[in-house]
Structures are given as structure tokens and as C-alpha cells.
Write a structure and sequence with these properties.
With 407 residues, this protein is an alpha/beta fold. 43% of the residues lie in helices and 25% in strands.
Length: 407
């Protein structure tokens, strides 16, 4: 029995073998290929990277593409996520990354969109037409979070970044539901996570994963997942991939954050910020207390001043009133005494004079019968009266009687 010695290739040898094969095959050089642009990015050096994808028979086929700066300066403007392009170039192998790639030297743009873009557009327009993206259905994100639920892969870099940031926040309970985030089973996995967290009772749910190729993120374009997020009674944040990645879950969620890190930053309050805010509030309150104390002292001083002023004025007023009272009483006594003296003097004069002296001055005494008439009310029309004067008397008949109302 013959024994054959096995031949073992080093990685370098295999890589060079592949590269020689690719280079020697004319069918892989100077060719045009057509596909849908996906995962478009570029480096600081000016090189562009993207994938060309094609859907056929329910399967997705794609190849990574590289376009160096010298070609990108002319053709990069034709690249657009989801557009269909024709690329001219050659097939090669990138040794450091161990990847087969197509190196693009020319691009012609086709006036059409690719399958994946059209599928995204179909779902987007359908759900938008039903109102699932409307702001009126967006639930407010709570400012203070006691319990947060996160649906993601427990082994991902995304969850490590999120947990690192949440540890700096005000204390909260964190529940991570481990789920697949790509592949055929991922949609149902994520939905089960939302179901569990909703039933458990958290304040906020975050559906998240880090960046990846478009087909890896396409799970979050699922109509089934979108409807479950919309129906969730608890506010949901969608934080998928990078800032440039927009997916259906971003539109239907109550809030979209561009990255897992950004989602973590937006949840709750940083402990340091709360401490600073409390310190500011404390200083503001102490400042107001000082102001009120100063105002109280001023008011107290004013009250004491007014009280002293009033006491002085009242004391002066009492003295003044007493002086006025005494003066008025003295004046009154003086007036009464004078009046009394005048009356006594008048009475003395009258008493000393005979009434006939008054008659000589033109006065007369009116009599009715034997009695003196002291008031016109004692008289009536046609009464006979006697007028006694200084040198005799006369009889007269009353023609009319008029009573003076003022008397």
C-alpha cells in the first residue's frame, strides 16, 4: 500500500495561490458587473468602499467593492445607497483582510433602484399610509427611568458600551433580554424580548445593535417587528447601527437614536449632572433665603421706625388735644360769662325802664279783650283788637292773619 505524504500550505502560500489564479483568469478582469449599492463608506484617504448586491431566487448575493481615490474623484458622486450601478474593473483578493473584492475603475449609473431599496420603500410607504410613523402616536420618553429593558445580543460590543454609560447615570434597574440581532430567527427573537419586558413592567425599552452590513441590519426593516414596536404600551427607543443607517424600526419607534451609545446617553440623568443641578438649586434656595432675610430685616426696621414715630405723634397729639380742650373750655367759659353779664345788664336796663318809654319809641301793645296778644295765632279775621300806644289807644279790625314760618 502506497503512502502519500500530505502537503501543508501556509496561509501566505494559499493567499498567493488564490491571487495568481484570479490574476491569470481573463474572465475576472476588465469586466462590467451590475448590482445594488449597499454599505457605502469612505476613508480619510479618499478611498470608497461599498457592496454590490443582487437578490435572485430568494437568495442574496453580494461582493465587496473598493474604489481608490484616483477613480473616486470622478465617479463617487454616482454612488448612492440603494441605487443600481454598473461597475467596470477587476476581481482581486485583499490579503490583510482575507477578502475577495472587486476593484472599481469606472461607474455608470442605472435609472433604477435595487430590490432591497424597493422592498424598504414598499414597507415604509405601507406603514406610513397606515399612520404608524405619525407623531400623534409617539409615546413620551420618561425623564426619570427606574427600570430599563434592553433587547440586544448579550455578547455584542453595543451592550458593553450601553452598560458602561448607564453605570454613570442615576441608579436604575437594568434588564437585558438576550436576542439574535441578525439572521432568519432574529425578528421573532426580538419580538419575544419586547413581549417579556412589556409583561415584566419596565419604564422604557431599548432595541439596539451595533453597526453592520445592510443585510445584517435588514432585520430591523421587518414589517412584523415594526408592528410589534408600534403596539407596545411601553415607550421604545430604536438605536441600530450608525448615524447613517435609517431603518423601519427607527421610524416606528417612539424615538430614534443614531447609535447604541447615543441611546444610553439619552436615558435618564447622569449622576454628576443631577448633583450639579441639586447644588445649583441649593445655592438658589439659599440665595432666596438670604434675600428674604434681608427683606425681613428691612421690614422689621421700618415697622419699628413707624411704631416709634406713631408713639411720638400720639404722645404729642394727646398733649395738643389736652391743650386745645382746655383752651376751648376757657373760651367757652369766657363767652358764657360775657353772655351772662350782657343778659344781666340788659335785664337790668329793661327792668329799670317803664314800658311806656318803649311805647314813646313807636312800639304798641296789642290787646284782645282784656288779654295782651303775644302771637298772631291768637287772632283771626274780623277780630277786634285794641292798640295801646303812649298817648292813647285805638280799636282795629283784623283784615287778615299771616304767620311767619321762620318764627
Amino acid at each position: 500500500m502506497l503512502e502519500f505524504e500530505k502537503k501543508v500550505l501556509g496561509v501566505r502560500e494559499l493567499v498567493f495561490l488564490i491571487m495568481r489564479h484570479l490574476k491569470s483568469n481573463p474572465a475576472l478582469h476588465d469586466i462590467w458587473i451590475k448590482g445594488e449599492v449597499r454599505d457605502l463608506s469612505f476613508s480619510k484617504s479618499g478611498n470608497y468602499f461599498f457592496s454590490l448586491a443582487e437578490n435572485f431566487g430568494g437568495y442574496r448575493y453580494q461582493i465587496n467593492c473598493t474604489m481608490y481615490k484616483e477613480y473616486a474623484e470622478k465617479y463617487a458622486k454616482l454612488l448612492e445607497e440603494g441605487s443600481v450601478v454598473e461597475c467596470y474593473g477587476y476581481t482581486g483578493f485583499y490579503p490583510a483582510g482575507g477578502q475577495l473584492a472587486f476593484y472599481v475603475e469606472k461607474i455608470e449609473k442605472r435609472d433604477e433602484k435595487g430590490y432591497y431599496w424597493e422592498e424598504f420603500k414598499r414597507i415604509y410607504e405601507k406603514l406610513e399610509g397606515e399612520g404608524l410613523f405619525s407623531e400623534e402616536f409617539k409615546k413620551p420618553i420618561p425623564e426619570w427611568v427606574k427600570r430599563v429593558g434592553i433587547v440586544t445580543s448579550k455578547d455584542s460590543a453595543a451592550i458593553r458600551d450601553v452598560l458602561k454609560i448607564l453605570k454613570k447615570k442615576m441608579p436604575m434597574e437594568i434588564y437585558v433580554y438576550h436576542s439574535l440581532v441578525q439572521g432568519d430567527m432574529a425578528v421573532d427573537n426580538i419580538i419575544r424580548g419586547i413581549d417579556w419586558l412589556e409583561k415584566f413592567g419596565v419604564d422604557l425599552i431599548v432595541v439596539t445593535r451595533g453597526g453592520g452590513a445592510y443585510d445584517e441590519l435588514s432585520v430591523f426593516n421587518s414589517e412584523k417587528l415594526a408592528r410589534r414596536i408600534f403596539e407596545c404600551r411601553i415607550p421604545v427607543i430604536s438605536a441600530i447601527g450608525h448615524e447613517k443607517d435609517f431603518l423601519i424600526s427607527d421610524y416606528v419607534a417612539d424615538k430614534r437614536e443614531p447609535t447604541p451609545t447615543a441611546a444610553a446617553v439619552s436615558i435618564g440623568k447622569f449622576r454628576e449632572d443631577v448633583e450639579l443641578e441639586l447644588e445649583r438649586c441649593k445655592e438658589a434656595i439659599l440665595g432666596r433665603v438670604r434675600q428674604f432675610r434681608e427683606l425681613y430685616d428691612k421690614i422689621d426696621a421700618w415697622v419699628k421706625l413707624i411704631k416709634r414715630e406713631c408713639e411720638m405723634r400720639f404722645a404729642n397729639t394727646e398733649v395738643e388735644l389736652e391743650r386745645i380742650k382746655e383752651k376751648m373750655l376757657t373760651n367757652a367759659r369766657d363767652v358764657l360769662n360775657k353772655l351772662r353779664l350782657d343778659l344781666e345788664s340788659a335785664y337790668s336796663v329793661i327792668a329799670q325802664k317803664d314800658y311806656r318809654e318803649f311805647l314813646k319809641a313807636g312800639f304798641a301793645v296789642v290787646k284782645k279783650g282784656l288779654f295782651n296778644v303775644k302771637s298772631v295765632k291768637q287772632l283771626k279775621k274780623k277780630d277786634l283788637i285794641t292798640l295801646v300806644m303812649s298817648d292813647g289807644s285805638a280799636v282795629a279790625e283784623v283784615k287778615s292773619v299771616k304767620v311767619d314760618k321762620e318764627v
